[in-house]
Specification:
By secondary structure, the chain is an alpha/beta fold. The protein folds into three domains: 199 residues, 3-Layer(aba) Sandwich (Rossmann fold), CATH 3.40.50; 173 residues, Glycogen Phosphorylase B (Rossmann fold); 172 residues, Rossmann fold, CATH 3.40.50. The strands form three sheets. Strands 1, 2, 3, 4, 5, 6, 7, 8 and 9 form a nine-stranded mixed sheet that branches. Strand 15, helix 12 and strand 16 form a beta-alpha-beta unit. Helix 8 packs across helix 21. The longest helix has 15 residues. The chain starts with a helix and ends in a 7-residue tail after the last helix.
Amino acid sequence: MDTSQSFWKNCGDSKIGPKSLYELQRRLLTHFILPCIPSGGSTIDLACSDGEFTSLLSIISSVTKGYDISPKLVKKANESFGDSNITFEVSDLVNEELHGKYNTVSCMGLFTCITNNTHFKEIVEKIDRISGESCYLILKDTLTEQDKSIHINNGNYEAIYRNEIDYIDTFKKYGFTITQRHSLHKNEKIGIESVIFLLHRSKKTAVTDSTKKNIAIIHQFNESWVNVDQLYKELSNKEGVNCFAIITPFLHKNYEWSFFKSKEHLDSFGVKNFRWDQIDLSKEYFDATVFLSPYEKTRPLDIATRKIKEISKLTIYIPYGLECGGGEGNINLQYKQPSLEFIDVVYTRSELAQQQFIKYCPYPAEVIPIGHPRLDYISSGLHTKTTHKKFTILWTPHFSFTSNKWSSFDIFFEFLVDLQSNNRDLKIIFRPHPMFYKELNQIGFDKEKTKNILSEMHDLGFMVDKMIDHRPSFMESDIILADPGSFLIEYLATGKPVVYLENPFGFGLNDEVKDLIDSFYVASSPIELSKIIFDLKDKNDTKFTKRQHATNKTFKNIGTASKMIADDIIRRTFENRRYE
């Protein structure tokens, strides 16, 4: 038995790194990795240690097994986490065989301790044998970019830091591909990095039709489908077009992504859809691919724009929101994302939005001011209120009330609670940004506390809107109270009053929207907001004409933008078709 095996066999506490490292590992597993793995399968955790992370893996599993070489750690794991669905056993992975078939295999920290390369390859082969036809593999090890592995042995502790490319290639030989890579800790001086990966292999599904134009829409979060719902219909109704959505994770600490919720949402719209990791992108081609988000870090590595660019004749970006916020940070978020380097065409809502892209985006995409598909519903009259029993206020706070401060939630919360409780002849619809609730969790409001706050608001007369589609609330409301965000300018197109809630400590509005400020009512304090609300309740609306003028400047082709974009996409796919 080598030094490493001897050390770990006699180990009673495996957490030899800083506490912050394991906290980060837990966050990455919880927010990014586990949501991408289908629930209900079987899981095996190799080198399970004291069972803490095995217990976390069991959340997605019907049956979970943990193996470790240390009897002390296995005893501790069984005492802390063992039950009918999660068991722990002592096992020497070098000398013992593995049995069964598993949907998820976890090896967190295992291979840094397997210093013999022959043993390393043998264990990987064992993993291949126990992996189901569709299997997810979680790896965590310390690796190096140096050509040769770094081997340390001080007589008591032994470890190996393998070259990362060689390490990953070992798993690729068995059909696994990288879906996610997250850095836990980097030591520049030594040239090593602790990394956690999610790999996957499965039976692949063919999604394209060689006799048709194949157009993919990358779908990451349900709230954004309204942006392209009508565009999808236009494309799908065209003869000779195969249009479909690729359901792709939205990896963000403030968003609770679920494949099943995404699929359920798209199915409800009759959208043809496929799961991203069931497509063999090396064997597919797309005539066009539509991205609805510029944030590369929120996508799996195999859906990166540069990767899709290699297999797509045309790459398109339709902004996920209507750019509004000010500050250099927001300019970077909206216009300078590295993913935009690999985009051919950006469709914007107006010449004003086009100018913002041209001014700030350093990449050479063609920017076309053709209109935004998400506004086509306006022409159908869906924004018109159906009942008039109460004056209805739509309140839509942003989530950034701890940093950036586009949100004014903490400024107006108490006032609006008092307003609702003391004025039962009006109704406030509370519809915050989709990341709002997770942001509350981040600052110490757990789910139970948040639930209690919402329950109290409901009892006071608030309507808490948790629907995916915002349009019913647009329809039901008489005015909107909005922070910098899509709703602030989208609501203009309804013709109804817009109240901009200004945070004096925030970054405010971008150049384009500053030019529209005369069409908004502006409140930066509860006193100002109170006067505006009661004036509008009394039908004293002095900005109707200005809103009409602002709408004409801000939006093009409301009602026909989807058709025009669909026609333009098809026209472009006929130009020098790449894969014929």
